[in-house]
Amino acid sequence: MFKTLFILFFLSLMSFNGMAQQRKNIEIKDSGAFGEIDEEKYPGARILTRSDAGQVHVYHDGIDMYCDQAVLYGKENFVEAYGNVKMVQGDTITMIAKYAEYSGKTQLAYAKGDVVLTEPSSVLTTQKLFFDRAKQEAFYNEDGKVVRDSSGTITSRVGRYYMSKKKYRFLKTVELVNPEYILTTNQLDFYSETGHAFMFGASKIVGETSTVYCERGFYNTNNDTGYFTKNSRIDYDNRVVVGDSMYFDRNRDFASASNNITITDTINNSIIKGHYAEVYKSKDSAFVTKRALAISVQENDSIYIHSDTLMVTGKEDNRITRAFRNARLFKSDVSGKADSIHVNHQTGLTQLINLSRLSKKDAFAVKRRPILWNLTNQITGDTIHLKSNPKTEKLDSLIVFENAFIISKDTLSTDYFSQIKGKRLVGLFDEGNQLKQVNIFKNAESVFVIRDENDEFVGLDKARSANIEMYFAEGGIYYYKRLIGSEANTYPEKDIPKGVKKLKDFDWRPDERPLGFDDLFKDDPPLNLPIIKGLAPALPEEEFFDEDLLNRLEQADLESKPKLRFGDARDDKPLKASRQIPTKQVRDDIKRANPNQSKPINKVLKKTLPTLNDTIKKKE
Fold it and tell me: CA-to-CA distance for 448 and 408, rounded, in angstroms?
């Protein structure tokens, strides 16, 4: 009989110990006294107060809590901690506050009053904080601040910390303040160990020399580099860079962009387009390739330059555009083509240059001399300089160095051309941007069609002299004279000798002439742009107060409900496990805090970006 009773007692003891171990009740490690009891104020609780030897110390399943006073509810496995509260989880997480409470049943901690959560890489401060030990996540919804030495200070209205991932998610009015810049966004996913930040929704990074805007982006706060997609742009003082995908390096004042790039010079009223670009702010330079196009926006007639590669250098008051490899220029009254075109925006000098050093195998080498078209005139030479007035936008003068050659097709026949050639050419333009005077110097030769007052063919005039001076009116030559050592012959049509119609090196090239904006690209190879994967959109994660946590709270409250009602104020007290949980309306507001990533950039751009693009679209 005794043996049977002993076995039953032993089994019941094991069962009790197993249940206790499963529940893992909050343990008292140290307290000033065994504990006071105040059933009226704290029914079913033991009040523990610190002693001269130290604070009250309680423990639960790997977390230590220290405070000046603790109210421990044994049945509910719940503790309230007052005064200099400190909670320590292992050797990685420490939280201090003025007040805290913790449920051993739900493993949910709640702290308020100057709350500081410290982990190895950052420090979080707020006034109210929830800490779910089951999921190892912390959450605040009434303003918080995170400090990381190398990254700066991050503040937000709502925040969440994932301890296993060392990741913060900040929502609503997010701001990262660094000595070098201020980052603002709708949502910031921040990894405290690496300093990597992911931005979602309308975001800005404002520094002393640059402003970045994007609606999806990545920023490495350790080395100050970033990658931005979705309506991304970078403002560098007087330059605005826009592209599908952008890379940014603050330390080097460098940015690169891929696909659908536009670089706007807000001071010089110019735009560069292409599909790959590099911008060096400190060097005042920009490099653009892949169907590169430079546009000098003018009130009456914009100038377009297209080439394989464009480079723009110099400060805003002394900027130079260089177009390399198969460069082409178009304006309504002037167009041109050369291996390279250089434009000095301060002086108004445009140079068409032949890069003779290029290999014959170079696909972009133009093995023919630079060429310029003005109305009916084709002008070629080894190098051509076109001078304009930067303020009035009017053409001023033209100089052709070495092997100057002008050809103008006779409008009343198919096989006659007026031609002038010499070593050097100097031309002047009238107010309508038409050649009004041309001087040919050294070894000048000419061939002119002579017609009577009825436009009947009279003869072909061929001459040579040291120099030639000509004057134009209404698109034709109305006066010319030969200077020094003139030799001339006029041949009737039936007596024109073989080879007289065309001067040596005659090269008529009408098919190369751009007649409109689209002709600038007609000889370009097919453009195959890379597919940019970019950054994935923000994925909605489970709410902090998810179904699992709410079920734990509900179960804890259910177990804590008294079996009998007291018939007094104790019956109306809220149940402890769930009493701090925000209302459903507040939780729904938090859920809606995720940014709407489909907001257009247009309104943002129009505040700061001039309407240069609109001007170009109208002209195109």
Answer: 10
CB-CB contact of 266 with 246 (8 Å): no
Question: Are 186 and 171 spatial neighbours (Cβ–Cβ below 8 Å)?
Answer: yes
SS3 12: helix
| Cβ neighbours, 10 Å, residue 125 | 19
Taking only the tens place, the pLDDT of each residue in 590-613 is: 777 665 444 443 343 333 344 444
Q: Which residue has the tokens 């089951």?
A: 134
Query: With left for phi above 0 and alpha for psi between -120 and 50, is residue 614 left, alpha or beta?
Result: alpha
Q: What is the pLDDT of residues 194-223, one digit of tens each?
A: 999 999 999 999 998 899 999 999 999 999
- Of 352-361, 423-432, 609-618, minimum mean pLDDT range: 609-618
Q: What is the spatial distance between Cα 491 and Cα 416, in angstroms, rounded to a whole number?
A: 13
For residue 298, list its beta bridge partners.
none
Q: How far is CA 209 from CA 236, 250, 380, in A?
A: 6, 9, 44
Whether the CB-CB separation of 240 and 261 falls below 8 Å is answered with no
CB 264 within 8 A of CB 612: yes
Rounded Cα distance between 359 and 343, Å, is 24
CA distance 249 to 272: 21
Token digits for 576?
Answer: 């402890």
